[in-house]
Design brief:
255 residues; alpha/beta; CNF1/YfiH-like putative cysteine hydrolases; 7 helices
Length: 255
Amino acid sequence: MSHDALEAVLERGDAALKELDGLRYLTYPALDELPGVRALTTLRESGERVLGKALTEWDEPVANPSHAVQAYGKAGDWLVRALDVAEAGFAAGEQTHEDRCEIITADNAPSPGELCRFGATDALLRQQRGVALVVLTADCLPIFLADAAAGAIGIVHAGKVGTRKWITSQVAKAFFEKLGAQPATTVALIGPSIGDGCYSQRLWDENTRQLRDAGVATIVQPSLCTRCNLEQFYSYRAEKGFTGRMVSAIIRTES
């Protein structure tokens, strides 16, 4: 699978570059074209400035990791406007490189103005409106799922260990079985992440295979390698761990 420069991906139309308050981020036409779905990924210079400690410390231990809630502050305000929604809560996982998926329901959803972190969780699913699902990455794969007909969305943080544990396959199956999404109307998109050939594990190919084997009809892979596009994205391996994180988020809107 080729590794394309961001400029080539933008020209091809697999991603669109936008800016808000001087901070750049990507949206994806394959998801934007779905009614009631919004998604984005921040670029390198935007990640830390948008997120601050509120989000970048989500991958650190917390006192109550099973369900930690806090006010999201200015970072969330920016994300709400970038996602083009009136208000939202935010849900994220602890990202422990496991295969656990949390379904965000009325019982465990954050209220507007809150962000909620679920312990030992690397994937999130949601059917109702009003909650953005978030992952933080700097080489691992952010994988978006959406079925507009079923009103279902999902996001996966897939690294080496999670991929070996078939997280993407398991989440896709839960997407169909628990949320009523259908393989024929589901779109999956693999966001900026380290490409096959720049890392010893073939994460792009393997996760694409897991999506395909689960029956996902439409799989979009913009081929944006974080290591090859280091000016635009963080890369944990290229920067030997001394790096920030991009945020990827998806939400179901009112429209």
